[in-house]
């Protein structure tokens, strides 16, 4: 057997594997004998089938299977032994493979195109400066949250006539009479102020005609009313008619122990001051997640923009098309290849940082993460106490499901979290505290 690498450049190469009869024939003969022992063929007793019959009936498929098995292992071993940093998977030369005469040939030559990545420098130090925008929890947000919670856990009534805080339900049609939605829902307070009067004073059976754009300046609200995506709703214009079938009004809940228990669980908070403090804490945790996610996006932006990595574009395009079962076309590549390259580049940087700094994830950490996930989804720590030792078995079962994909998903999540934590600790994060409205504006500007 002879294996060689012909490097076209630093990122592309061709691995050639030459096989002689001595490389594969001993294993082929063993498999022929094994087939003869196990085969159940009409006219022969089991275990007494002549090897000549087996060769005639199955010889070619045994040969092909054995050579494919041999190639797979030897190719993988060669890549590992030579520390080749390949991207994707080796691409076999299918045209050359199709010229093989399996009935006659004794010696074979196979070719595999590979894409590689060179070593690359990156900077991870205090000289790297990345902005961060922690969100301050202001009184306005707290007041709005308290108001929303009082409504959410309030008592629902069904009045005869609608008012400004009511909700209207019923079928929605275009002005021409076509059904836009069998059952729609409009919160009067979400309607633009100038248009709200059309929805106030309505009774069951009333038909309210309105201009969809004038009533809802926000595409997300328009989408909810129409039952469409925001992108689809954006293009919708014209007049619509809502026929009122139901009017609902929520009487806000009182700030008392019953509300506190319903929102946060029994006896978690016992008075109004504790309730407000817990709301502020919860909002702060949610804001921190948003702020941290935006910081991670800035970190990614920095390393992608400031790390020079040569990638084998032609190979990657060929590999993506080959491995996608026809889903990746030239058109798809034209639209999405740059985004794919960006993601690949960021993965390469993260992997290098993890390798250079020995950042690892242990199986016990993945198991603990799975237990936390299960606890959060099924009722918190009270649920965990009820389960006791059974929680370990539930976590193990979850990790084994989906052919181990759940394990890999949590493993990759933990690994990414550790890498980003390490990066944050070794760069300069420039914090600027902002309000939630300022944060939303910064995020929107960053998108553009």
From TrEMBL:
Pfam families: Trigger_N
Domain of life where this protein originates: Bacteria
SUPFAM superfamilies: Triger factor/SurA peptide-binding domain-like, Trigger factor ribosome-binding domain
GO biological process, one term: protein transport
GO MF term list: peptidyl-prolyl cis-trans isomerase activity; protein folding chaperone; ribosome binding
InterPro entries attached to this UniProt entry: Trig_fac, Trigger_fac_C_sf, Trigger_fac_ribosome-bd_bac, Trigger_fac_ribosome-bd_sf, Trigger_fact/SurA_dom_sf
Domain Trigger factor ribosome-binding bacterial: 1-148
Gene3D superfamilies, sorted: Trigger factor ribosome-binding domain, Trigger factor, C-terminal domain
UniProt name for this protein: Trigger factor
PANTHER family recorded: TRIGGER FACTOR CHAPERONE AND PEPTIDYL-PROLYL CIS/TRANS ISOMERASE, TRIGGER FACTOR-LIKE PROTEIN TIG, CHLOROPLASTIC
